[in-house]
Amino acid sequence: MAKLEQSVPTINSTPINSGDNAWMLASSALVLMMTAPGLILFYGGLVRSKNVLSTMMHSLILMAVVSTLWLVFGYSMAFAHGNAFFGDPFKYFLLHGVGAAPDPTYAATVPSQTFMLFQMMFAIITPALISGAIAERIKFKAYLIFIVLWTTVVYLPLCHMMWGDGGLFNWALGGKIPVLDFAGGTVVHISSGVSALVCALVLGRRDGYPHEPMMPHNVVLSLIGAGLLWVGWFGFNAGSALNAGGLATSAFAATHFSAAAAALSWTVTEWLFKGKPSVLGAASGMVAGLATITPASGFVTVPAAFCIGLVAGVVCYLAVTKLKARFHYDDSLDVFGVHGVGSTTGMLMLGFLASATVNPLIGNTFHKNGVVVSLAGNMHQFWNQLAGVGATVALAAVATFLILKLVNVTVGLRVEREDESTGLDLSQHGERAYNE
Amino acid sequence: MKKIEAVIKPFKLNDVKEALNDIGIHGMTVVEAKGFGRQKGHTEIYRGSEYTVDFLPKIKIETILPDAQVEAAVQAIIKAAKTGKIGDGKVFVSTIDEAWRIRTDERGESAV
User: Fold this and answer.
1) Which residue numbers of B have CB closer than 8 Å to A's CBs?
2) Among A35, A39, A19, A38, which Cα is nearest to A248's?
3) Alpha-carbon span A20 to A387, nearest angstrom
4) Whole-prediction pTM value?
5) What Cα–Cα distance (Å) separates residue A3 from each residue in A127, A136, A301?
6) pLDDT at residue B42, as a whole number
7) Residue of chain B nearest A212, judged by CA positions
8) pLDDT (0 to 100) of residue A14
9) DSSP summary character for residue A105
10) Mean pLDDT of B99-104
11) What residues of chain B lie within 8 A of the CB of A325, using their CB?
């Protein structure tokens, strides 16, 4: 999340720009729409009909749980000034002091409350993405405990490291290692993707996988969800400009063209390998293109974004087919293959493709030993990007593994075999999605 | 009395129904069925993962006829349902011992 205002007019004037605030509020709503109903429908359609409600609940309940965490200490731990790894959890405890006045550190022209809301929607959708890897077999109680711990131990620190004031990787606000991540390649997609893979490995495969057919019960729902994700992603990426200026438009364009390119390249790849261009494949390509462009969206030209999308469609297709089959893990809804692999690809390509013409701040903001260092595409920035990805993977993998082990010895991770066979809707929630 | 059971491809239902109508057979029961024979199943691909679907959708037509109509009816069904490709289906004929029409208490061939 770039610090976009170089000089902030604060003296004796109210600095709130209503255009910026309108766009940021709309973007906040768009990002929430990605979770509900976007992800809810996208994931809900991909599972079997006996698990559709439980899968939807995994996303829905986060709007309640993560919002509560955010209110109490989450925002403070992510965005208050602290050390290089996390913010002071007490500074904005219960959102004290987060009101109409802007916080020029992050967004000088909107109320700090707007910034808080926008960031909260990211914190909600990130653990929701993980739920795709544990679908159809996790105990609901275990899921809730996992999510609370994961958000606290993985999301909030990572968010602070990349975007928080003084965060280790924050190139604009005093970080030591300048990592470019415009809208959450590391914080949202790699963290959730890698954690999803660890979840799939620790929980084990669904009973019967891969011998029994486990086909999506309603591809139509998934397509509606994918469409909502694409639209919501404009808030996610273009909103990450934190104002309604030219950079927001540029990020909007990059987002769109990457999604288009990836839908195209996934479809062509599948057509060549399998003989038919599936509709779910095209939708999966779209999502792959969106996840891949996320870190790069505010730093690259439209042609570069299109190239990133083309690569995303092919790489993610290979990840969810070849890689998953080779290692026999049951990442049920392909969170790692699409979000983890996609955003890693985007983060690394960004090292070479970042453009100071698109985003002049990356050319003149970061200082090392008192000298300005440009972060525009070069080999050195590639290594910085790799360091950011590596740190994210390490934190997400280790913390997720430990949390899962802890949950397993306390309440147990998986439902009983009979309950899994009955379906989680009935065994965990006492409901069925389709009566009649 | 005989019972004819014909398992056919779903898209041939209308052709078969009209062929039977043309020879004066106006009653039948139709069941949406699933099954496989020599045709086996087909493959569906979701996100690159292939699933073999063994049971294919079929239509099963049942009709009970007086013995005199059976041969013509079977020939009409075969003619109408044939594509010449694998999976066209089968026709079975079996004997029916007795039949009643509930509304009128008629029994035997006049009831069917």
Assistant:
1) 44-53
2) A19
3) 33
4) 0.88
5) 26, 41, 19
6) 83
7) B51
8) 59
9) T
10) 95
11) 49
Domains of chain A: 18-98+105-420 (1.10.3430.10)
Give the C-alpha separation, A190 to A340, whole Å: 4
- What is the span of the domain harbouring residue B85? 2-111
Q: How far, in Å, CA of A405 to CA of A50, rounded?
A: 27
DSSP B8: E
- Are A224 and A43 a contacting pair, CB within 8 Å? no
The residue whose two tokens read 């496989």 is B36
| Size of chain B, expressed as the number of residues it contains | 112
Is the pLDDT at A3 greater than 80? The verdict is no
Q: How many domains does chain B have?
A: 1
Residue at A221: amino acid letter: L
Q: What are the pLDDT digits (tens) for A135-153?
A: 999 999 999 999 999 999 9
Chain A nearest-CA distance from B30, in A, is 21
Q: What's the whole-number mean pLDDT along residues A201-205?
A: 97
Q: At what angle do helices A302-318 and A341-353 cross, to 10 degrees?
A: 150
> Which of A215, A219, A321 is the closest to B48 by Cβ?
A321
Q: What is the ipTM of this complex?
A: 0.71
C-beta separation of A238 from A251 below 8 A: yes
Q: Check residue A10 and give its pLDDT.
A: 47
Selected residue of A43, A46, A215 to mutate for chain B interface (largest B Cβ count, 10 A): A215
Environment class of residue A415 by beta-carbon count within 10 Å: exposed (0-12), middle (13-18) or buried (19+)? buried
